[in-house]
C-alpha cells in the first residue's frame, strides 16, 4: 500500500470512528442505574411539568451521612430514606426530591467519615428548596425523616413551611403510622427483649432489603454497650416500651462528647453499633416486612390526603 493510500485509509478509519453508532460507544462502566419514575434527579423538566398536572405532592427525605458500624455504609440513612421514597412514588404520583446527604450527627464525629451540619444550616437549605418547589407549583410536602437526629429540626421546618408559605407540610412517618399493618405472627427471634437502635439488627435488616450490595454481613457480630449507671438501669423499661423512661433515656443518650454526658457513640460502643443484639440476626426478610408495611401505609395516607384536598388547577399554583 502506497503512502498516499495509507493516509487515505487512516483518514477513512478516523471518520468511521467519529460517526459510529452511539450504541457501540464505550460508556461509564460504573453506571448501572435505571431511570426511576418520579425521581427528580432522573427527570427532565417536561416530565416534572407533566407530573405537576396530576400531583402537587413531594416527598423530601431528610437523612444523614454518618457511621453505621462496620457492617453498614455511612450512607445508610440517605439510602434508607431515598429508597423508601422511590418505592412509594412507584405506587402513587408523588415527586421524590432529595436535597442533602448530611444531617445533624455530632455524636458520631469520633468515627471517620461522618459529616455533621448545624441545625440552622439544615433547616435553611431545606426551607429554600421547598420555596423553589412551591415556585413551580408543588404545594404538599411529605418530609421523610430517615435519621432520628433530624427530628427536632424537621418539626421546626414543618412549622415554617405551614406558617410562612403557601405550602403544607407533614412528617411522613407520623402521617403513615395509623395505617401501618404489621404481620401478626413474627418469627420468634424478632421478639428478643434487648435494646436495638442505631446500626442494630433492625437497621441492618432494613439495609439488607433496601440496598443489599452495600451491607457487609461478614463484619456483623455481637455488641456490648457501656452506659452511665442510671441509664443502664433505665434500659429494661426502655426496651419494654415505657414512654417516660424512653423520653428520659433519649434526652440524655447519644449526645456529643463535649456535653460531658458520656453518651457519644464511641463512648458507648467501640464499633458504633448502638445495640445489645448480635447483628448477624438481621435478615432481608425482616427488612422486607417492616419496609413494605411502611410503604403501603404511606401510600394509603397520600391517597386519603388527595380525597380530603383535591388538586388545584396548575394555573392557580404557578408563581410565573
| Distance N to C terminus | 67 Å
CATH superfamily membership of the domain at 43-186 and 290-314, which one? Creatininase
**CATH first level of the domain at 43-186 and 290-314: which class?**
Alpha Beta
Flag low-confidence runs. Answer: none
Please name the CATH topology of the domain at 43-186 and 290-314: Rossmann fold
Percent of residues in helical segments? 40-55%
**Secondary-structure content class:** mainly alpha
Order of helices and strands: HHEHEHEHEHHHHHHH
Instruction: Give me the count of strands.
Output: 4
Number of helices: 12
Order of strands, widest sheet: 2-1-3-4
| Mean pLDDT across every amino acid position | 93
Large-scale geometry: globular
Major sheet summary line? 4 strands, parallel
| Strand fraction | 5-15%
Gyration radius, in Å:
24 Å
CATH second-level architecture of the domain at 43-186 and 290-314: 3-Layer(aba) Sandwich
Describe the structure.
The chain is 43% helix and 6% strand. It has a domain at 43-186 and 290-314: Creatininase (Rossmann fold, 3-Layer(aba) Sandwich). Helix 3 crosses helix 11 and helix 8 (229-239) crosses helix 9 (243-252). A four-stranded parallel β-sheet has the order 2-1-3-4. It is mainly alpha-helical. The relative contact order is 0.15.
Amino acid at each position: 500500500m502506497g503512502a498516499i493510500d495509507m493516509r487515505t485509509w487512516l483518514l477513512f478509519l478516523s471518520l468511521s470512528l467519529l460517526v459510529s453508532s452511539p450504541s457501540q460507544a464505550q460508556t461509564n462502566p460504573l453506571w448501572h442505574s435505571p431511570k426511576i419514575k418520579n425521581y427528580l434527579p432522573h427527570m427532565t423538566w417536561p416530565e416534572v411539568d407533566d407530573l405537576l398536572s396530576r400531583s402537587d405532592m413531594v416527598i423530601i427525605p431528610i437523612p444523614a451521612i454518618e457511621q453505621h458500624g462496620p457492617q453498614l455504609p455511612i450512607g445508610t440513612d440517605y439510602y434508607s430514606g431515598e429508597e423508601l421514597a422511590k418505592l412509594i412514588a412507584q405506587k402513587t404520583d408523588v415527586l421524590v426530591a432529595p436535597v442533602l446527604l448530611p444531617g445533624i450527627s455530632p455524636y458520631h464525629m469520633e468515627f471517620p467519615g461522618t459529616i455533621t451540619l448545624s441545625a440552622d444550616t439544615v433547616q435553611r437549605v431545606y426551607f429554600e428548596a421547598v420555596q423553589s418547589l412551591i415556585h413551580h407549583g408543588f404545594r404538599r410536602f411529605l418530609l421523610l425523616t430517615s435519621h432520628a437526629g433530624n427530628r427536632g429540626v424537621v418539626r421546626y421546618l414543618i412549622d415554617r413551611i405551614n406558617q410562612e408559605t403557601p405550602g403544607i407540610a407533614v412528617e411522613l412517618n407520623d402521617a403513615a403510622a395509623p395505617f401501618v399493618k404489621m404481620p401478626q405472627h413474627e418469627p420468634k427471634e424478632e421478639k428478643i427483649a434487648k435494646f436495638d437502635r442505631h446500626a442494630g439488627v433492625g437497621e441492618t435488616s432494613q439495609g439488607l432489603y433496601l440496598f443489599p450490595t452495600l451491607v457487609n454481613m461478614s463484619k456483623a457480630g455481637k455488641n456490648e454497650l457501656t452506659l452511665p449507671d442510671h441509664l443502664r438501669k433505665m434500659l429494661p423499661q426502655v426496651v419494654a416500651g415505657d414512654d417516660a423512661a424512653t423520653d428520659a433515656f433519649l434526652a440524655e443518650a447519644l449526645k456529643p462528647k463535649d456535653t460531658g454526658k458520656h453518651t457519644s457513640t464511641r463512648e458507648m460502643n467501640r464499633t458504633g453499633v448502638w445495640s445489645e443484639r448480635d447483628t448477624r440476626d438481621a435478615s432481608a426478610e425482616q427488612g422486607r416486612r417492616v419496609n413494605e408495611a411502611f410503604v403501603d401505609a404511606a401510600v394509603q395516607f397520600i391517597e386519603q390526603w388527595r380525597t380530603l384536598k383535591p388538586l388545584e388547577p396548575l394555573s392557580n399554583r404557578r408563581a410565573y
